[in-house]
Each structure stands twice: as C-alpha cells, then as structure tokens.
Amino acid sequence: MYDSPVISPEHKNAARDIIARLPKVDLHHHLEGTDGVDPAELQTPDALTSAVTRAVVALAEDNVVYVELRLSPEFYTAGGLTLREVVDCAVSGIEAARAQAPTMDARLILTAMRGTGLLADVAELTVATHGDVVVGFDVAGPEEEQDPLTGYAEAFASLRKNYVPVTVHAGLHGGIDAVADAVQDGATRLSHATHMVDDFSVDIEGIVPGRVSAWVRDRHIVVESAPLLEVELGAADELGDHPLPLFQQLGFTCAVTTGNAAAGTMTDQFLALADTFGYGLEEFFEVTVAAVNNAFISQEERQRLLETVILPAYEELADPEAGLVGDPDEEDES
Ligand SMILES: [Zn+2]
C-alpha cells in the first residue's frame, strides 16, 4: 500500500515550523466553533455560504488538506431558510472554497443536536443530500440532556439502509452508556469518547478495556480525539492527564481533530502533543493515516489523498537534507 517515511530517533521531535507545514486531516471541525462565526448572523444564503467558504480557507492556511466540516442545519433557519436550503448554501460554500483553496479537499457532515427534536429530520436530510459534498451524519449536543438515541432507531436504520456513515458525540460529558448507544446505532466514529476510560479495569496484565470499549477498539471504531478542546471542557485537568496516549497504547484507532477551532488549530494540537507527550513525525503520521483511512469517502479517494498529498509531504519534510530524518542506511552505521 505505502511505505511509512523513515524518521530517525534523533529527529523524532519535529520543530514547530515543520509541524505547521505538515499536511493535516481534520475529521471533526464545527462551523459553529470557527473564529467569528455566530449562527445568529448567518441567517441569509450569502452570509452562510461565505462563512462556510471562509472556514475552509482558514483551515487550508493551517495546511489542513482534508476536512469534514460539521454544520448543524437547525441553527440557520431563524431567517426563513429551510433545513434543505441551509444545506444547499453550505454545499455552495464548500464548492467556492474548493476553487479558492485547490489544495484542500473539503466535505460536509450534517450535525443533529440532541434534545431539539430534529434528529430524524436532519438524518433524513443527510440521506437526501448524501454524495460528493455531504458525506456523513453526526449527533452533538449535551449528552446529559440527550433524548436517548434509542428513541431514534428508525432514523439510524434509515441512515444504515442508505449507506450514510455516522459519527456521534459520545462519552465526553456522558459515560460509557452514551458510547454504547452510539455504536449500537451504527456509529463508526466517536467524537471525544474520553470517558471510555471509565470502562477500563486493571488486572495483573495491566489495563483492560470493558465490554463496550473493547468493542470500540476491536472493530476499529475511530476515536476522534480533540485534546485541547477536551481539556478545556473538563475531560482532564491538564493535557498531561489526557487519555489519548493510553488509548493508542491499548490499540484504539485514534485521530486527532480540532472539534472547535476556538480551542486551537490542528497545528496547535500537534504542538501541544509534541510538548506534552513528546509526539513527533511518527506519531503525527500515524494519527493522520488513521484519519485518512476513516474519512467518510471512498477507498480510492483516501488512497489518492495518502499517496499524492500526505506521503510526499512527509517524505519531503522528513528529507535528510532538511536535517529532520536520517537516511536509513546511515542510521544503521551510527
Ligand atoms: Zn464536536
């Protein structure tokens, strides 16, 4: 499939400017969390369309090469737009962004909010618009106020029948039961899921995932980790206590995402992980590949992204002459 770039131990810790230049993949980024975005001011087609474009262009400036921008249609109907018109505006915004930032592949995920009673409508809208731009469905909102997702079995069944991929915000404020609900409803990715640690126990072998979290790990259900945001939201006292490294050690499939841009860009996330956990190019490559491989697009599109964008950039940035990566042969001699 591909060879991982060779990164020598002495150059494992990437410099800040290299991290900024790495091609990044963001599977979890809300329009509503983007700098300067206030849904109350985006109630006209032009305002909404251009906000979507600006959000994508801003991500491209951070060298994000693929994003699944999330948008909650129900936030933009106060000015008279229908849910469907909101999605049409967002699609236009994505198309305009593609023209302005040709190195960026941007898609949309439609997010239904818990507790507003519109989950089934947004699911239906996602089924109706699923295609090149709208690639998936999401549920967000306060888990403690959730309508139990089980009340929406029909909506989730319809998404499955129509082959629409699903991710769910679960296990940030809510516990392992919220994660269980999400996977039972067909989520193949989980936003946050930090509280899966509550499902872990310790025996003489070490830390052992429980029934639900083992299922998540063993089926490669992706944890869309947003470390800076999750610390801000109280999932850990400080980044050093964040469960991402533990999840990775236990074999979970983890992507690093922003969640909400106000908590930090992808570059900020990578820098913080480098500073706190010593992450370097190898770790960034690993989470980037995990993200690409679980993007809500076809295998051919993922492969193209990896082979024509991600790998060449890592190879270039990991060039021995750039002083970041040793030649594998030389490495053997040292
Ligand atoms: Zn989110």
UniProtKB/TrEMBL annotation:
Adenosine deaminase domain mapped to chain residues: 25-310
Pfam family, one: A_deaminase
Coiled-coil intervals, chain numbering: none
Cofactors named for this entry: Zn(2+)
This enzyme's EC code(s): 3.5.4.4
Top EC class of this enzyme: hydrolase
Name assigned to this protein: adenosine deaminase
Family assignment from sequence similarity: Belongs to the metallo-dependent hydrolases superfamily. Adenosine and AMP deaminases family.
Ligase in keyword set: no
Key words of the record: Hydrolase, Metal-binding, Zinc
Alphabetized SUPFAM superfamilies for the sequence: Metallo-dependent hydrolases
